[in-house]
Amino acid sequence: MLEEADKRLVGAAGVHYVAAELLRRGYLALPTTRNTKGADIVVCNESKTVKVQVKTTHKGGARLGWILGDADEQCDPDVFYVLVNLRQSKPDYYVVPSTTLGPYLQRTHSKWMRTLGKRGQPHRHSGVRRFPNEYEEVDLKQFEEKWDIMF
Q1: How far is 124 from 113, CA to CA, in rounded Å?
Q2: What CATH number did the domain enclosing 12 receive?
Q3: Burial class (CB in 10 A: 0-12, 13-18, 19+), 96
Q4: pLDDT per residue over 2-42, tens digit each?
């Protein structure tokens, strides 16, 4: 199990990998200071500016997924999520619009709230969300390396 400091380092690494990939593709990518609300990276081209939230995991195996929060349910056409998997020698990137991710998190959290827990008890509201999760299947391939959807 990672120590808390190590988890922050994994997150910081994800932000820097994403910024580097965007720069490599010709976009201006400006990482924000730590804990800036709403954006880990501000990304610009000649005509548009978007905000990117980066979520990073270093786990994988049979069930690849990212932990998000209830704030990630917000939908904004100028906000994108880049989900990074660092478990390989080369990072895997999945670019998901907030207009897709937000409704997914809302729907699946609502389904989770309507189910009972392992011991038959009702679930309590939680700010934790997972993408993807067992309540709605997602084909991650549709988001893999889809950098151009930002612009």
Answers
A1: 7
A2: 3.40.1350.10
A3: buried
A4: 555 577 788 899 999 999 999 999 999 999 987 677 799 99
CA dist 80 and 118 (Å) reads: 34
Spatial separation of the C-alpha atoms in residues 131 and 7, rounded to whole Å: 18
State pTM to two decimals: 0.90
SS3 142: helix
Give the structural domain span for 16.
Answer: 4-102+138-150
Q: What residues pair up with 55 in beta bridges, in sequence order?
A: 83
Residue 127 lies in a domain: no
Q: CB–CB of 107/129 below 8 Å?
A: no
Total residue count of the chain as it appears in this document = 151
131 part of a folded domain: no
- 117 belongs to a structural domain: no
Domain tally, the chain: 1
